[in-house]
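Retro notes (design track)

What went well: tokenization of the new backbones is finally stable.
What didn't: we kept losing track of which sequence belonged to which structure.
Fix going forward: every design gets posted as structure first, then sequence, in one message. First example under the new rule, 580 residues:
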């Protein structure tokens, strides 16, 4: 009985979990290399990768340390280092083990001979000539295997994008001569023939004419194939807002000779879209809007939209009828109308605008040409009138940015020219130029934001001009520290009545405080003027701000002081929207 009990105790003790050995405390120090080379060394160094393993004992630690120099040599080969020496030490201290590796990478292996060849039709293709001329491998450069592999991929990618679907790398090798200590690189592409676009077939339950869809296609049958042209078509159709789904396929298996058929599958978007909005800004006060858009009114792709906007200082009701032109992706004709009512401390005006014109997009530039007829009844300070203006309006704008909502670098410029003549319908004559721009540039954890606005007018009877064509300064996007449209020439009773000329400028620095927060310091200056000599001087505002990144742009909260005002008052500014 006692013997049986003893065996049971032994078996139970054998089944009990034993205490896990304590993990060794290991520090790995590597010196002599940095950047990508260091990253690759640490990635391939077994002692670094296994140092936290609980099962790692002293014996295995010493074996890992012994093979570390060989691993370091292998890690540096892709960067062209073939004469690497490593001084290694493994020491045990009271606080654990320390493995040290000092690396002397030696001289990088130079490229002594380089053969980069493109044969076949691609040899006459400017895109390949440019790639070869700017190849990142040249005689005398240090051999870098990742750069070599990248050049191979670039050649194959370009061949695919340009329609050389039979292209092959007939030679691709790197030869290393350690005695002469130089490398020779051979890279040869046989492109084969270049394919062309075949016929385009369109499928889907279309509610617009197929002819309209075909006007979006940026290539013709028989034109050389380009993947970029297919991307351009994808973007154009997506930007039209006619379609909720766009599938474009190059049917290479169905090629007829060297022509590849293109299939275009489309699903229509919902015909009508409604939009609602609520907001607040210190310029406008509380505001709200409701809008409706008919994405396609008829089979010709005409569009219609209408919007009602209401705020504490301005109400608008607008409607636009849009007709796509020959290239519907970039050109359109517009008939528009707008009723507005402005109410500020010094202004009360009611305006009706009817206009017709064209809009065009050419690269990053957007151009518009309109004839607007505007009837505006107004009171501004002690002046009042009923203006009637037939104005040709020419406008150019350019936007360049990495991200419209969260800009790291970008710029925007806008120029507008407009005028009217008593000889043609209008009851007064005027001509006006208005130019504005903004630049954003990031440095480290911050951004610099610079903006400026200038305007000038010619008007023999300035008092007949309505407020909508006069210049004012002050407000969230002008000179902060001053209220909206509070800067400009004044009448005899001190009412701001606007000016013929305008100048404003702003310099701001934002510093990132976290993933979504930033702090800002800014200085603004500007004013509107009655005369070109800028009589009255520039007003200035300065302050601090807090920024919060939101899905629709940035929420900007600024506290600004009107530093050139006699009383130097402070003012809160709140604004919401994209950077540019």
């Amino acid at each position: 009985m006692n013997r049986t009990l003893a065996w049971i105790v032994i078996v139970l003790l054998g089944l009990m979990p034993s205490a896990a050995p304590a993990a060794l405390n290991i520090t790995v120090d590597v010196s002599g290399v940095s950047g990508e080379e260091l990253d690759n060394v640490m990635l391939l160094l077994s002692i670094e990768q296994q140092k936290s393993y609980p099962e790692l004992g002293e014996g295995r630690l010493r074996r890992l340390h012994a093979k570390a120099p060989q691993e370091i040599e292998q890690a540096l080969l892709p960067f062209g280092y073939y004469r690497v020496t490593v001084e290694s030490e493994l020491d045990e201290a009271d606080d654990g083990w320390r493995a040290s590796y000092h690396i002397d990478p030696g001289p990088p292996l130079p490229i002594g001979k380089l053969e980069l060849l493109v044969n076949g039709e691609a040899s006459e293709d400017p895109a390949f000539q440019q790639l070869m001329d700017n190849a990142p491998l040249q005689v005398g450069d240090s051999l870098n295997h990742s750069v070599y592999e990248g050049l191979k991929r670039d050649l194959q990618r370009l061949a695919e994008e340009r329609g050389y679907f039979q292209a092959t790398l007939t030679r691709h090798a790197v030869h290393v001569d350690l005695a002469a200590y130089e490398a020779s690189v051979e890279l040869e592409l046989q492109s084969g023939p270049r394919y062309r676009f075949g016929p385009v077939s369109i499928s889907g339950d279309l509610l617009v004419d197929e002819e309209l869809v075909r006007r979006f296609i940026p290539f013709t049958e028989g034109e050389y194939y380009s993947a970029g042209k297919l991307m351009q078509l994808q973007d154009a159709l997506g930007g039209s807002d006619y379609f909720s789904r766009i599938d474009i396929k190059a049917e290479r298996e169905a090629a007829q000779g060297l022509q590849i058929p293109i299939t275009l599958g489309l699903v229509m978007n919902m015909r009508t879209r409604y939009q609602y909005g609520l907001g607040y800004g210190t310029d406008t006060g509380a505001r709200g809007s409701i809008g409706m858009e008919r994405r396609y009114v008829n089979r010709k792709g005409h569009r219609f939209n209408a919007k009602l906007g209401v705020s504490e200082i301005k109400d608008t009701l607008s409607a636009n009828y849009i007709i796509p032109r020959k290239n519907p992706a970039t050109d359109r004709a517009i008939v528009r109308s707008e009723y507005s009512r402005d109410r500020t401390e010094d202004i009360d005006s009611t305006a009706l605008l009817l206009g017709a014109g064209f809009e065009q997009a050419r690269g990053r530039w957007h151009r518009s040409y309109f004839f607007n007829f505007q009837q505006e009844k107004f009171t501004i300070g002690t002046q009042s009138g009923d203006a009637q203006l037939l104005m040709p309006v020419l406008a150019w704008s350019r936007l360049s940015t990495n991200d419209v909502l969260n800009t790291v670098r970008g710029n925007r410029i806008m120029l507008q020219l407009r005028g009217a003549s008593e000889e043609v319908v209008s009851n007064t004559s005027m001509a006006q130029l208005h130019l504005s721009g903004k630049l954003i540039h990031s440095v480290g954890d911050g951004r610099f934001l610079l903006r400026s606005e200038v305007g000038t007018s010619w008007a023999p009877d300035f008092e007949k001009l309505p407020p909508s064509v006069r210049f004012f300064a002050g407000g969230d996007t002008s000179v902060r520290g001053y209220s909206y449209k509070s800067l400009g020439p004044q009448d005899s009773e001190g009412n701001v009545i606007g000016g013929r000329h305008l100048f404003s400028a702003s310099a701001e620095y934002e510093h990132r405080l976290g993933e979504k927060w930033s702090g800002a310091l800014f200085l603004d200056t500007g004013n509107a003027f009655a005369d070109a000599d800028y009589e009255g001087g520039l007003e200035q505002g300065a302050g601090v701000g807090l920024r919060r990144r939101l899905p629709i742009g940035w929420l900007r909260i600024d506290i600004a002081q009107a530093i050139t005002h006699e009383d130097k008052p402070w003012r809160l500014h709140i604004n919401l929207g994209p950077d540019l």
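Added context from the reviewer: The radius of gyration is 35 Å.
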